[in-house]
Amino acid sequence: MKVTKRETAFEGKYLRLVRKTSVTPTNEEVIWETVERTNVYGNGAVGIVALTRKGEFILERHWRAPIESYVIQFPGGLTDNHQESPEETARRELREETGYEANELVLFLSVPTCPGLSSSTVGFYFAPEVKYTGDVKRDIAEEMEILTIPKNDLPEFLLNLPDNTILDLKVPGIIWLLATKRLI
Question: Which end of the chain is more exposed for a tag (fewer CB within 10 A), N or C?
Answer without folding.
Answer: N
